[in-house]
Amino acid sequence: MAKRIVFTKRLQLLGLLSVPSGMPLGWIFNTFQVFLVDLGISRSQIGLLSGASLPWTLKFLWAPLIDRYALPWPGRRRSWIILTQLSLALAFGALAAYAWRALAAKEAGTPLDAAPLVLGLFALGIAFLGATQDIAYDAYAVEFLRPEEHAAAPGVRSVYYWVGMLLAGAVAIGLVDLIGWPLVFLLLGLLFLACVGLVFWCDEPEHPPVPRASLREAVVEPLGAFFRRKDALAIALFLVFYKFGDNMAGTMVNPFLKDLCFSNAELGAAVKTIGIVASIAGSAAAVGLTMKLGVGRALWVLGLAQALANLLYAAAAVSRAAPLDAHLCAAGLPPLDAATRVWAYVSIAGEYGAKSMASVAQGALLLRICDRKNAVTQFALLSSLFAVGRWTAGMPSGYLVDLLGYPVFFTLCATVVAVPGFVFLQRIAPFGQRDVEGAEPRGL
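Request: output the structure for the sequence above.
Response:
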């Protein structure tokens, strides 16, 4: 039964919409970081520039506007998805032009002093458009799905979301040495443009909710409905801290791989092949595990796997018998040995697979908590709480690496920093409990 649901045209088309949804985040936390390294930006500045993901943290603030106002065609949610995709295509086109200028200035020995600020603004704008696209897409998914599809949908969406992240991340990085940064950014813009046709191919929800009569109704009722839950505060804090350790470690993964002296081509190829396989396999496996274990148990099992996977990066760092500094790689450092390369590949597979599995369990929780009537604001609020953890965890990461070194940093992320998420998970789903109390949708 589950297999038949997963491979229906309805769920597969919904999943395909996750590809452009995952691309902005994949770019911010992968390609953008590698581009900054190639421009000579310091680790501390890279950590600070990860704060450009702020719009995903604050998207609940303008979600009611997306709910209240929309173009009548091709649909309330799909019209917003199309507008954001067209805007993202233009943004990446402009970024391609600026990247060409910044790289030319660096080659000439006169780097642009304002480059970190300008690139930060580009990243902030792309994150804002990506977050707005997510608001509309998440609302469309909640309204589009039938009750019997709720268990399978998060895994399908996650598989395609990871494809989008890796297209804008690993695949883009892998192409840099072949065609250069400006053309890579231009190709990403063209990919967003192509995705517009996919949105037209999708159907409208069978029973779309009635549009809000006022902006007040779009804000007060959805938030009030969630915070009337007895477990609302515990769920909110859980969403902030569940991935805190993994987010902190993840911000430094690409700088770490560059500091190991991976080339852009090999880094992209490794993440493209290993990361895609591990993420898709993890997401697919998590569908069955979540249905078998229940949401509560799955959050425990997959969350522990997600946290501990970061210890693999610590082992990879220890295995490298040379300074970990990308700027020294061309200055006579010994090449990567087989042991370090294997540890790095195992780390990528373990971390990508584990966090994609945990994301499926978390997605199942969000789908069950949000009701269709209040889908836009509630889903935006809850996913924003998750983004709070991602945003705050990333910003100090570069300073911590400089202070502690990579082995201690990744060990800290896998243990101490991960603990608060499980403390709050214990409040909403005590260890061993199959489900999350009160997580079923509440019709209002």
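Confidence is low (pLDDT under 50) at residues 438-444.
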